[in-house]
Amino acid sequence: MSEKKRLTKLPTIRRMPMYLRMLTKVQKDGMEHVSSNYLAEALDLEAIVVRKDLAVAGILGKPRVGFEVKAAMTAIEQFMNFNSPTDAVLVGAGHLGQALLGYTGFINLGLNIVAAFDSDADKIGTVHDKPIYPLSEFSDRCKNMNIQIGILCVPGRFAQDVTDQMVAAGLKGIWNFTPRKLNVPNGVVVQREDLAEGLAELSVKLSRMSEA
Predict the structure, then answer these.
(1) Residue 55: pLDDT above 80?
(2) Is 182 left (phi over 0), alpha (psi -120 to 50) or beta?
(3) Fewer CB in 10 Å around end: N or C, the chain?
C-alpha cells in the first residue's frame, strides 16, 4: 500500500466503494458528469466531504461541470486496487460462508474468493462453483496458491485456532466475521465485521425514530 493510502483516514476509504456504486449507477443512467452536490444528496453526505474524499483519489471536479464519471470510476478503482483482484480463501462454509461465496460483487471490489475450507465432511464439494476442501488441507493449498487473505466464518469458539492456521500458512490479512477478538502477530492485519454491533445500531435507530 502506498504512503498516501496509509495516511488516508479510514472513513474516507470506507466511503470509496459507495462512491463507485453511485458513479456506476449514474453512468448507466447516461450521465457523463456529476456534481459533488448530486453525490452528496444521493449518499446523505456533505458536499465538502465528497469533494475531499474524491480528491484523495486524485479526482477533481470542474466548476459548473462536476466530475467526469468514467474518469472518476477509473481513479477509484486504481486507488483501491479494485482492478487488480486479490485471491482469498474462506474458512467456514456454513450459511454465512456460502452466502459470501455466492456474492459476485466481490470481484468488482478487488477480491476473488478462490476456495473455501471446512472441517465438516458433509460440506466438502462445490458451492457456487467454488471448491470446498477439508480444513486439514488448508496450509498446503494456501501456500501453493500464494494466498494472502483469509475470510473467517467459523463459530467463535474455533476462531483463534483457525486464525493460528491462517498465520502459519502465511496469510497477511484476515476478514473476521466471528464475534471473537483475534490475537495475531505484527504484520498480520485483521478487519472485524461484527454483525451483532450492526444489528444493535439498527435497533437503536429504529427505537429513536419511534420515539420522535
Answers:
(1) yes
(2) beta
(3) C
